[in-house]
Amino acid sequence: MKSGLSFSAADLAQTRFAVSPMWEVVTSFRLLQDANDPPLHRRWAAQVRPRLVHAGLDRGWLAELVPARGYLADFLNPTPASPFPTLVAELDAIRRTTPAQVRKDLEMLGVERTDRPSPRLRLLDEAPEATLEKVAAEIECYWELALAPYWARIRKLLEADVFHRARQVAEHGSARVLSELHETVRWDDGTLHLVRRHCALTRDEAGSGLLLVPSTFAWPRVMTRAVSPDPPQLAYPARGIGNLWEPRATSATDAVAVVLGRSRTLLLAELDTPSSTTQLAQHSGLSAAGVSQHLTALRNAGLVTAHRSGRSVLYARTSIADALLTPSAEPA
CA quadruple 223, 227, 228, 233: dihedral positive or negative? Predict the structure, then answer.
Protein backbone atom coordinates (compact mmCIF):
# COMPACT_ATOMS: atom_id res chain seq x y z
CA MET A 1 0.00 0.00 0.00
CA LYS A 2 1.41 3.38 -0.98
CA SER A 3 0.30 6.68 0.50
CA GLY A 4 1.51 10.22 0.05
CA LEU A 5 1.68 13.19 2.39
CA SER A 6 1.89 16.38 0.35
CA PHE A 7 3.89 19.35 1.64
CA SER A 8 3.52 23.05 1.09
CA ALA A 9 6.25 25.47 2.10
CA ALA A 10 4.29 26.10 5.32
CA ASP A 11 4.09 22.37 6.07
CA LEU A 12 7.83 21.99 5.62
CA ALA A 13 8.45 24.98 7.89
CA GLN A 14 6.29 23.35 10.60
CA THR A 15 8.04 19.98 10.45
CA ARG A 16 9.72 19.19 13.78
CA PHE A 17 11.12 16.38 15.93
CA ALA A 18 10.00 15.22 19.38
CA VAL A 19 10.94 12.45 21.82
CA SER A 20 7.68 10.99 23.12
CA PRO A 21 7.42 8.70 26.18
CA MET A 22 3.98 7.53 25.04
CA TRP A 23 5.27 6.40 21.65
CA GLU A 24 7.79 4.28 23.57
CA VAL A 25 4.94 2.89 25.68
CA VAL A 26 2.78 1.78 22.76
CA THR A 27 5.61 0.50 20.55
CA SER A 28 7.28 -1.43 23.37
CA PHE A 29 4.00 -2.94 24.54
CA ARG A 30 3.15 -4.08 21.01
CA LEU A 31 6.61 -5.59 20.68
CA LEU A 32 6.15 -7.58 23.92
CA GLN A 33 2.94 -9.12 22.53
CA ASP A 34 4.90 -10.76 19.73
CA ALA A 35 5.20 -14.49 20.38
CA ASN A 36 8.76 -14.42 19.04
CA ASP A 37 11.38 -12.57 21.07
CA PRO A 38 12.46 -9.52 19.05
CA PRO A 39 16.15 -9.98 18.21
CA LEU A 40 17.26 -6.41 18.93
CA HIS A 41 15.34 -6.23 22.23
CA ARG A 42 15.68 -9.81 23.49
CA ARG A 43 17.65 -8.87 26.64
CA TRP A 44 15.14 -6.18 27.57
CA ALA A 45 12.09 -8.34 26.82
CA ALA A 46 13.43 -11.24 28.89
CA GLN A 47 13.67 -8.95 31.92
CA VAL A 48 10.38 -7.12 31.44
CA ARG A 49 7.90 -9.74 30.26
CA PRO A 50 7.76 -11.68 33.58
CA ARG A 51 7.12 -8.44 35.49
CA LEU A 52 4.15 -7.62 33.27
CA VAL A 53 2.64 -11.07 33.60
CA HIS A 54 3.02 -10.92 37.38
CA ALA A 55 1.30 -7.51 37.46
CA GLY A 56 -1.47 -8.65 35.09
CA LEU A 57 -0.61 -5.96 32.55
CA ASP A 58 -0.51 -8.48 29.73
CA ARG A 59 -4.33 -8.62 29.87
CA GLY A 60 -5.28 -5.09 30.89
CA TRP A 61 -6.22 -1.81 29.22
CA LEU A 62 -3.09 -1.61 27.06
CA ALA A 63 -3.75 -5.10 25.73
CA GLU A 64 -7.18 -3.88 24.59
CA LEU A 65 -6.05 -0.57 23.12
CA VAL A 66 -2.74 -1.73 21.60
CA PRO A 67 -3.43 -5.07 19.89
CA ALA A 68 -0.50 -7.07 18.57
CA ARG A 69 -1.41 -6.21 14.97
CA GLY A 70 -3.23 -3.48 13.11
CA TYR A 71 -4.72 -0.26 14.41
CA LEU A 72 -4.01 1.06 17.90
CA ALA A 73 -6.01 3.76 19.69
CA ASP A 74 -4.84 7.17 18.42
CA PHE A 75 -5.64 8.96 21.67
CA LEU A 76 -2.70 7.15 23.30
CA ASN A 77 -0.32 9.30 21.25
CA PRO A 78 -1.33 12.94 21.81
CA THR A 79 0.70 15.55 19.97
CA PRO A 80 3.74 16.48 22.12
CA ALA A 81 3.66 20.15 23.09
CA SER A 82 7.47 20.34 23.28
CA PRO A 83 10.48 18.50 21.83
CA PHE A 84 11.02 16.49 25.04
CA PRO A 85 7.68 16.11 26.89
CA THR A 86 7.42 14.16 30.13
CA LEU A 87 5.20 11.14 30.62
CA VAL A 88 3.17 13.21 33.11
CA ALA A 89 2.41 15.82 30.44
CA GLU A 90 1.38 13.20 27.90
CA LEU A 91 -0.84 11.39 30.41
CA ASP A 92 -2.55 14.71 31.18
CA ALA A 93 -3.26 15.07 27.45
CA ILE A 94 -4.69 11.53 27.33
CA ARG A 95 -7.01 12.33 30.25
CA ARG A 96 -8.28 15.35 28.27
CA THR A 97 -9.22 13.24 25.24
CA THR A 98 -12.71 14.15 24.06
CA PRO A 99 -15.45 11.51 24.21
CA ALA A 100 -15.85 11.92 20.45
CA GLN A 101 -12.20 10.96 19.85
CA VAL A 102 -12.44 8.01 22.23
CA ARG A 103 -15.52 6.67 20.44
CA LYS A 104 -13.94 7.17 17.03
CA ASP A 105 -10.88 5.17 18.11
CA LEU A 106 -13.04 2.43 19.61
CA GLU A 107 -14.96 2.18 16.33
CA MET A 108 -11.67 1.75 14.49
CA LEU A 109 -10.61 -0.96 16.92
CA GLY A 110 -13.98 -2.65 16.46
CA VAL A 111 -13.60 -2.77 12.69
CA GLU A 112 -10.43 -4.82 13.02
CA ARG A 113 -11.77 -7.17 15.73
CA THR A 114 -13.68 -10.31 14.90
CA ASP A 115 -14.89 -10.83 18.48
CA ARG A 116 -17.41 -8.77 20.42
CA PRO A 117 -16.19 -5.69 22.28
CA SER A 118 -14.71 -6.53 25.66
CA PRO A 119 -16.22 -5.26 28.94
CA ARG A 120 -13.30 -2.84 29.23
CA LEU A 121 -13.90 -1.27 25.83
CA ARG A 122 -17.64 -1.03 26.51
CA LEU A 123 -16.87 0.76 29.80
CA LEU A 124 -14.53 3.15 28.00
CA ASP A 125 -17.25 3.82 25.44
CA GLU A 126 -19.95 4.43 28.05
CA ALA A 127 -17.92 6.50 30.54
CA PRO A 128 -14.83 7.80 28.73
CA GLU A 129 -13.82 10.59 31.13
CA ALA A 130 -13.79 8.39 34.26
CA THR A 131 -12.30 5.39 32.48
CA LEU A 132 -9.40 7.35 31.02
CA GLU A 133 -8.13 7.76 34.58
CA LYS A 134 -7.87 3.96 34.84
CA VAL A 135 -6.08 3.80 31.50
CA ALA A 136 -3.59 6.45 32.65
CA ALA A 137 -3.01 4.61 35.93
CA GLU A 138 -2.20 1.39 34.09
CA ILE A 139 0.18 3.23 31.76
CA GLU A 140 2.00 4.64 34.80
CA CYS A 141 2.33 1.12 36.21
CA TYR A 142 3.61 -0.21 32.88
CA TRP A 143 6.11 2.64 32.69
CA GLU A 144 7.55 1.85 36.13
CA LEU A 145 7.96 -1.84 35.29
CA ALA A 146 9.05 -1.74 31.65
CA LEU A 147 10.61 1.60 30.77
CA ALA A 148 11.52 3.81 33.75
CA PRO A 149 14.50 1.67 34.86
CA TYR A 150 15.92 1.95 31.33
CA TRP A 151 14.79 5.46 30.46
CA ALA A 152 18.17 7.20 30.90
CA ARG A 153 19.66 4.85 28.31
CA ILE A 154 16.67 5.05 25.96
CA ARG A 155 16.34 8.83 26.15
CA LYS A 156 20.03 9.32 25.42
CA LEU A 157 19.70 7.28 22.23
CA LEU A 158 16.55 9.12 21.11
CA GLU A 159 18.01 12.54 21.82
CA ALA A 160 21.16 11.62 19.90
CA ASP A 161 18.99 10.72 16.90
CA VAL A 162 17.18 14.08 17.05
CA PHE A 163 20.42 16.04 17.33
CA HIS A 164 22.00 14.09 14.47
CA ARG A 165 19.07 14.71 12.14
CA ALA A 166 18.88 18.38 13.15
CA ARG A 167 22.49 18.74 12.01
CA GLN A 168 21.62 16.94 8.79
CA VAL A 169 18.78 19.39 8.15
CA ALA A 170 21.16 22.30 8.67
CA GLU A 171 23.81 20.81 6.37
CA HIS A 172 21.75 19.12 3.65
CA GLY A 173 18.15 20.27 3.96
CA SER A 174 14.89 18.63 5.02
CA ALA A 175 14.37 16.62 1.83
CA ARG A 176 17.48 14.51 2.40
CA VAL A 177 16.61 13.86 6.04
CA LEU A 178 13.06 12.79 5.17
CA SER A 179 14.41 10.40 2.54
CA GLU A 180 16.80 8.78 5.04
CA LEU A 181 14.32 8.15 7.87
CA HIS A 182 13.51 4.57 6.85
CA GLU A 183 13.64 2.28 3.83
CA THR A 184 9.85 2.55 3.43
CA VAL A 185 9.87 6.37 3.46
CA ARG A 186 10.65 8.31 0.31
CA TRP A 187 10.61 12.05 -0.42
CA ASP A 188 9.75 12.91 -4.01
CA ASP A 189 8.82 16.28 -5.48
CA GLY A 190 7.11 17.77 -2.43
CA THR A 191 5.46 14.54 -1.25
CA LEU A 192 6.44 12.08 1.46
CA HIS A 193 5.61 8.55 0.30
CA LEU A 194 5.12 5.62 2.68
CA VAL A 195 5.18 2.11 1.26
CA ARG A 196 3.90 -0.46 3.74
CA ARG A 197 0.77 -2.50 4.25
CA HIS A 198 -1.67 -0.86 6.71
CA CYS A 199 0.38 2.33 6.79
CA ALA A 200 -1.50 5.27 5.30
CA LEU A 201 -0.84 8.95 5.85
CA THR A 202 -2.46 11.76 3.88
CA ARG A 203 -2.96 15.46 4.37
CA ASP A 204 -6.76 15.00 4.16
CA GLU A 205 -6.96 13.38 7.60
CA ALA A 206 -4.44 15.52 9.51
CA GLY A 207 -3.37 19.09 10.13
CA SER A 208 -0.45 21.04 8.74
CA GLY A 209 3.22 20.28 9.32
CA LEU A 210 4.73 16.95 10.36
CA LEU A 211 5.93 15.57 13.69
CA LEU A 212 8.84 13.13 13.44
CA VAL A 213 9.29 10.86 16.47
CA PRO A 214 12.36 8.63 16.81
CA SER A 215 11.52 5.38 18.59
CA THR A 216 13.52 2.63 20.24
CA PHE A 217 10.84 -0.02 19.76
CA ALA A 218 9.24 0.89 16.41
CA TRP A 219 11.84 -1.22 14.59
CA PRO A 220 11.67 -2.59 11.95
CA ARG A 221 8.79 -0.42 10.71
CA VAL A 222 7.40 3.08 10.84
CA MET A 223 4.12 3.88 12.59
CA THR A 224 1.79 6.80 11.97
CA ARG A 225 -0.95 8.85 13.62
CA ALA A 226 -3.23 11.22 11.74
CA VAL A 227 -5.91 13.03 13.75
CA SER A 228 -7.19 16.40 12.53
CA PRO A 229 -6.44 19.18 13.35
CA ASP A 230 -3.16 17.89 14.82
CA PRO A 231 -0.10 17.53 12.60
CA PRO A 232 0.49 13.98 11.35
CA GLN A 233 2.98 11.97 13.39
CA LEU A 234 5.50 9.51 12.03
CA ALA A 235 7.38 7.29 14.49
CA TYR A 236 10.51 5.76 12.95
CA PRO A 237 13.34 3.52 14.26
CA ALA A 238 16.08 5.59 15.87
CA ARG A 239 19.72 5.20 14.94
CA GLY A 240 21.89 2.94 17.11
CA ILE A 241 19.22 0.55 18.39
CA GLY A 242 21.45 -2.45 17.71
CA ASN A 243 23.81 -1.49 20.54
CA LEU A 244 21.22 -0.28 23.03
CA TRP A 245 21.10 -3.36 25.26
CA GLU A 246 24.72 -4.46 24.95
CA PRO A 247 26.51 -4.69 28.33
CA ARG A 248 28.56 -1.55 28.88
CA ALA A 249 32.22 -1.70 29.70
CA THR A 250 33.22 -0.23 33.04
CA SER A 251 36.79 0.75 32.30
CA ALA A 252 37.07 3.37 35.03
CA THR A 253 35.98 1.30 38.04
CA ASP A 254 39.35 1.51 39.78
CA ALA A 255 39.46 5.29 39.49
CA VAL A 256 35.83 5.66 40.58
CA ALA A 257 36.42 3.31 43.53
CA VAL A 258 39.00 5.72 44.92
CA VAL A 259 36.23 8.33 45.22
CA LEU A 260 33.11 6.27 45.95
CA GLY A 261 34.61 3.22 47.59
CA ARG A 262 34.81 -0.31 46.20
CA SER A 263 31.41 -1.51 47.42
CA ARG A 264 29.46 1.35 45.86
CA THR A 265 31.46 1.13 42.67
CA LEU A 266 30.78 -2.62 42.52
CA LEU A 267 27.06 -1.98 42.87
CA LEU A 268 27.13 0.60 40.08
CA ALA A 269 28.90 -1.89 37.83
CA GLU A 270 26.28 -4.56 38.65
CA LEU A 271 23.50 -2.14 37.72
CA ASP A 272 24.18 -2.44 34.01
CA THR A 273 20.89 -4.36 34.30
CA PRO A 274 18.24 -2.90 36.65
CA SER A 275 18.15 -5.05 39.80
CA SER A 276 16.54 -5.31 43.22
CA THR A 277 18.36 -5.09 46.54
CA THR A 278 18.13 -8.87 46.93
CA GLN A 279 19.60 -9.51 43.48
CA LEU A 280 22.43 -7.06 44.10
CA ALA A 281 23.23 -8.69 47.43
CA GLN A 282 23.40 -12.10 45.76
CA HIS A 283 25.62 -10.91 42.92
CA SER A 284 27.94 -8.69 44.96
CA GLY A 285 28.37 -10.78 48.08
CA LEU A 286 27.35 -7.81 50.26
CA SER A 287 24.63 -8.03 52.90
CA ALA A 288 21.14 -6.84 51.94
CA ALA A 289 21.33 -4.18 54.66
CA GLY A 290 24.69 -2.96 53.35
CA VAL A 291 23.40 -2.86 49.77
CA SER A 292 20.36 -0.85 50.87
CA GLN A 293 22.54 1.68 52.68
CA HIS A 294 24.86 2.11 49.70
CA LEU A 295 21.95 2.45 47.28
CA THR A 296 20.44 5.21 49.40
CA ALA A 297 23.71 7.14 49.21
CA LEU A 298 24.04 6.56 45.46
CA ARG A 299 20.46 7.63 44.88
CA ASN A 300 20.96 10.82 46.90
CA ALA A 301 24.01 11.55 44.73
CA GLY A 302 21.98 11.14 41.52
CA LEU A 303 23.86 8.01 40.42
CA VAL A 304 20.95 5.55 40.62
CA THR A 305 17.18 5.72 40.30
CA ALA A 306 14.55 3.56 42.01
CA HIS A 307 11.39 2.16 40.41
CA ARG A 308 8.75 0.02 42.08
CA SER A 309 8.14 -3.44 40.63
CA GLY A 310 5.37 -5.13 42.59
CA ARG A 311 6.59 -5.62 46.16
CA SER A 312 10.21 -4.94 45.30
CA VAL A 313 12.12 -1.94 43.97
CA LEU A 314 14.36 -1.98 40.91
CA TYR A 315 17.45 0.21 40.91
CA ALA A 316 19.09 1.46 37.73
CA ARG A 317 22.16 3.50 36.86
CA THR A 318 21.65 7.06 35.67
CA SER A 319 23.40 8.60 32.70
CA ILE A 320 25.71 10.39 35.16
CA ALA A 321 26.85 7.03 36.54
CA ASP A 322 27.30 5.68 33.03
CA ALA A 323 29.56 8.60 32.21
CA LEU A 324 31.62 8.00 35.38
CA LEU A 325 32.16 4.34 34.58
CA THR A 326 32.81 4.83 30.88
CA PRO A 327 34.72 8.13 30.59
CA SER A 328 35.55 7.51 26.94
CA ALA A 329 31.85 7.40 26.01
CA GLU A 330 30.12 10.35 24.40
CA PRO A 331 28.70 12.79 26.95
CA ALA A 332 24.97 12.51 27.67
Answer: negative
* Predicted confidence (pLDDT) per residue in 246-276, tens digit: 876 666 777 888 888 989 988 988 888 888 9
pLDDT in tens, 296-329: 999 999 999 998 877 788 999 888 888 888 765 4
Q: What is the CA radius of gyration of the chain?
A: 21
Q: What is the pTM of this model?
A: 0.82
Which candidate, 53, 58, 78, 79, places its Cα nearest to that of 68?
A: 58
- The three-state secondary structure class of 332 is coil
Q: Could you tell me the domains of the chain?
A: 2-241 (no CATH), 253-325 (1.10.10.10)
Q: Taking a C-beta distance cutoff of 8 angstroms, is the pair 222, 244 a contact?
A: no
Q: Which residue stretches of the chain are H helix?
A: 9-13, 21-32, 42-55, 61-65, 87-95, 99-112, 119-126, 128-142, 151-172, 174-179, 253-260, 262-270, 277-284, 288-300, 319-325
Number of Cβ atoms within 10 Å of the Cβ of 153: 21
Backbone phi, psi, residue 77, to 5°:
-125, 70
- The answer to whether 265 and 303 have CB atoms below 8 angstroms apart is no
Say which amino acid occupies 75: F
The amino acid at residue 169 is V
DSSP state of 237: E
